Inverse folding.
């Protein structure tokens, strides 16, 4: 097995986040607590670091299972990506955030498996998400801007999943 390096080089790193959409059009969003190492006190889609050797969609499905006890269906759609470059502290970072959408079996058994990281998790629909943005709720850096800029694509994927 190759000796992959992890997070010790000054370079961009990949994360994946996304919409885990159930048959009712709901998906989870998480409030990141004050206890997380970065991006505190804001709303976020479920998101995780991409591990070496795991593709984006599989990584997102792993994150859903690990963090929320959610089973994703086999299909997925890529929505897009954006850069998150932080210069707010002595520990700068550059993340490339990939956003995907997956249908999920159900949110009925959703569990917050990381309560120190996420002090609140809610199930919301697309209208509710955009209402929160219009109300200027705090989201992870560039999340809200990405949602607004990609509203048409997100809505199309969302509607396609609901028709299945």
């Amino acid at each position: 097995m190759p000796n992959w390096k992890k997070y010790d080089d000054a370079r961009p790193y990949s994360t994946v986040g996304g919409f885990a959409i159930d048959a009712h059009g709901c998906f989870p969003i998480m409030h990141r607590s004050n206890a997380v190492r970065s991006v505190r006190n804001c709303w976020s889609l479920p998101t995780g670091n991409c591990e070496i050797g795991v593709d984006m969609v599989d990584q997102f499905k792993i994150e859903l299972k690990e963090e929320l006890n959610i089973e994703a269906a086999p299909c997925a759609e890529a929505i897009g990506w954006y850069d998150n470059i932080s210069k707010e502290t002595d520990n700068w970072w550059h993340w490339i955030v990939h956003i995907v959408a997956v249908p999920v079996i159900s949110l009925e058994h959703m569990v917050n498996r990381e309560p120190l990281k996420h002090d609140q998790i809610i199930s919301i629909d697309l209208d509710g998400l955009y209402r929160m943005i219009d109300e200027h709720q705090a989201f992870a850096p560039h999340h809200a801007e990405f949602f607004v800029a990609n509203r048409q694509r997100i809505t199309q994927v969302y509607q396609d999943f609901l028709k299945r």
